[in-house]
Structure formats: C-alpha cells, structure tokens
What we know:
Elements: E1 4-8, E2 14-18, E3 22-29, E4 32-39, E5 46-48, E6 51-52, H1 53-56, H2 60-71, E7 79-85, H3 89-107, H4 112-118
Parallel strand pairs: 5-7
Antiparallel strand pairs: 1-2, 3-4, 4-7, 5-6
Helix pairs in contact: 2-3
Amino acid sequence: MAEDKTVKSSDEKELVKRDGHYFYANGKRKTSVARIRLYENGKGEIIVNDKPINEYFFGELIVSVKAPLKIANALKLFDITAFVEGGGVSSQADAVRHGISKALLEYDPELRSQLKKAGFLTRDSRTKERKKPGLKRARRAPQWAKR
Length: 147
C-alpha cells in the first residue's frame, strides 16, 4: 500500500520516508504542539523529530507516549512519525501522547470510550499564568514592610 523511500540525512542516518495512507492528528500540551502520522501496516517504530523514540525521550516518558497504543492493542500495527515543537521534554511527550490518541480515533472510532476513560483525549490546557503589573511574578507581591 505505502512505498518506502530511504533517504540519507545530513548526519548520514537512514531515515524512511513513507508515501501512502496515514491517519493524522495534532496533539497539544502547554506550549508544545505535536503533528502525528500513523502509518498502517507498520512494525511499531516511533520516530520523533527524525530520531527514534529512545533517542528523543527517556524513561517514563516513553511509557507515557506508548500508553494509548497499549490500550488499543496496536503497539505493532503502526509506524508513527511525530513532529514536535515548543515547550519542554515532558510537555512534548504529553503532546505526542494526545496526538497519537486522536489519530487512533481516526483509525477506529470505537476506541473512544477506552481512551476517554484513560484521560488521553482531554487536552490539558493548563499553561503558565501571565505576570501582572506591580508584582514580581504572576502572584508574588513585593515584600511589605509596616514601617
């Protein structure tokens, strides 16, 4: 169905560019935005910003990113490419997880109840509060002296 093209990148790593059918979704968290593509008939490879997931994320973040695939029993069904920008590493991992969950819904809407129960479809909208005038930070006021 999909044709693979092997391309040498600037650092001489072989990257697989895939043409063909994929399921697409955006995931967001704080200031991070992830664009996710799920390619059917894959081997379970996850590429984040042109690097394997083990090189880009570490420890619990990898488990967090793969959690929606585990719930859907789809760990080896798809090859996934993710392009993430903004935020920190943890925020990016949550954005990728959110995007994978939404893309899985494109693949199979029946997974909605399972993913919703796990909380993977809700966009965590908590962001940093803005600094107010006259304060040192968002809520920290200058020290007050009686005399």
